[in-house]
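Quick one: structure tokens for this chain, please?
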Amino acid sequence: MRELIKNPFKRLQKSAVVKLFFGVTYISNAQLTQKVSWDYPTKPGTEEWNLLKTEQESFAAVQVPEEVLEKMSSEEIVHLCVNFPRFGYFGAFVTPQQDGFSVMIDKYNIFERLFSKKGVGKSLIVAYKDAGMKGFKTLPYANEFWTIKLHYLELLLTQNAILQSMSPEERFELLVESRKKFSEKIYDEAFSSLSGLLCSVRIMATLLDIEEYQELKLSSKRQITSQFIQTGMLVDVSTIDEIIGIADNYIKTKEQNP
């Protein structure tokens, strides 16, 4: 296991990441066939976007009108979040992962609505289960900069407001899926680095923490795991093996005693 997660930042395509973070990525509507009641009128990479003069104008360009948000279903809210034009903005900050993501979600009203809308957890799980190692398999979402897109989706699924809104059955479904994603990532060159694997591990750790699973509470690495859940930073890589083992035990117990 440790051999598979060496060199956590290898294969990072810096030029692509920088372009995404600062808003020059174009998310093509041609990839989207699902009809929604509203779409972002201005996207990075378009002529309209290039006419924006300030960062504040760039922020405003992807805000969703409140009257539109009020009428949207949970599925439409999730659709706009998954296809959010600046989904890589969280990586523009040299801070713990969760801090950068918190800055991002505080700036855009689509996330405020996501965290308050009932039923979004189910739709996010559907999107996550459809997400493969190369992109979405069947759902009509954009797949550009896929390693970052999946990272972004998994970060959404570590947010406490989202997880607490799910039913116990939905949280278990998500735990099983994140464990599956971890296994797939190990054998995929684009995701087998430490940074790629940690996203799935953090979902598992957060879910086990919410369920107050006794094995996690009694773990010798409990303090390290708690810090990891809160910040996204893991100071001891060996903790990954422990979290995976605890998750496997939890899944086995639940399957034997539904």
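Residues 168-258 form one domain.
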